Amino acid sequence: MGFRTDQIHAGVTPDPSSGAILTPIHQSTTFVQPSVDDYMATGYSYSRSGNPTVTAFEARVAKLEGGIGSAAFSSGMAATNAVFMALLNTGDHAVVSDVAYGGTYRLATKVFTRFGVHFTFADTSDLDAVRAAVNERTRLVFTETPANPNLKYTDIAGVSEIATSLGIPHAVDNTFLTPYFQRPLELGADLVVHSTTKYFDGHNATVGGVVVSRTEELSEAVAFVQNAAGLIMSPMVAWLTLQGSKTLSERMDRQSASAMAVAEFLEGHPKVTAVSYPGLASFPQHELATKQASGYGAMGCFEVEGGVEAAKSLMGSVRLWTLAENLGSVESIITHPVTMTHADVEKPERLRVGITDGMVRISVGLEDTEDLIGDLAQGLDRL
Fold first, then answer.
1. What pLDDT was estimated at residue 148?
2. What helix, strand, coil percent values describe the chain, rounded to 5?
3. Would you name the residues annotated as active-site residues?
4. pTM for the predicted model, two decimal places
């Protein structure tokens, strides 16, 4: 089946008791057992260990990513946490992309280091840097591509080849592009992580996450953590995200096209000193972005003259763009990474990886493209 067919039908069947076309919301803590001898005959006993609505969502995402199985979580960070918990022990080492969501950096440096896990934040866009970063204690390579917030790309196939040769699992955060545009497992990755809060939901309605595994062994390891740590997705969130995922491809196509137009406008504005969008010929990794993915996505960032104050002024003067920390929704969102999404990353580290004071991150939604450009134009003209 094609992607558009699977995003609507994978994981779900009409409810056998009523014929309802939508998977029911199984809002139940526990499931009655027919007898002690037939315990778990239905496959369910307690919702922390499995819920039919959540199972339907997990099956859909696994199908879309081409994985052997998936596990859904209460947030994107819970999903990342589960990968770390499943694969890292005291004394182990992990290589993580030097440009990644601030929450990933915080989880690694403020939580897992307390338990004796070591991290190297490497420039994973440079394969030699990846080779140099791994050591005999490395048990995970975790990359985010395109990276949040500057859209830096990692060569998934190249990093996967290095990791596989050393017997190290490679996990990829695929939140920005989704399986519609980018399929890490087909490029050799072992695990895929999503914040389903973003494009899978698409409507600013839920918080959730998912991990998709390439092998049964990894799938079981992640599912064990999901149950043992109780990092579960709720049935209501799973149900809502099942509905949102039905339009994933249509939203991604439209949002990506608008993002390209917005990026071209920004590139020509005198108050903008730099624009980062993979679809632009000026993007340093445009060739890799074109080769690795089938679309460029709806995320971009740009630099305005005047640093923090100019960025704040712009975000205070736009009216159609929503000032918020989320992304991937039908509403267009504007964010200042230094004071918002990446505020927990120390300034020297931010500057080292190119997250500057005047950087503005945008998530392009489904509004009319000309309205989005017009709103940015009036805001920039005020600077």
1. 92
2. 40, 15, 45
3. 48, 101, 173, 198
4. 0.96
